[in-house]
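Sample entry (125 residues):
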Amino acid sequence: MKIRYSTDGELSIEGNQKEMESFSKEIYVFLESGNTSHNFELDAEYDPFPYEQVIKQMKFSKAKENNIVINGYLLTFAGENIFFESIADNIPYDVEETPYHNHYDSISFPQFIKPEAPEIVFEVI
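Predicted structure, serialized as tokens:
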């Protein structure tokens, strides 16, 4: 799975069907674990083009306020269980044709995403 970021506020999370399914399931594993946070080391040895930056680490953190923050090479998802469930449920992986993408942003999910948060594009390759 590759995660890339553009300074214009777009975040691309890209993988094949198996990788995207694993990502979705990993969110549920985190929720069921009872842990308050979970860190991921990511493959960062690729060209981020057409984006500017590769995300090297990702963190899930339970919090009272939903938020998506990029700080340097770290992507943090923080929020309540329903926020993480919404993300997991919207990660495409069981699509009939690839490539395929969908958007997870403040327009489609205003109850979870702040307008200033990065727009997420989930891409199945």
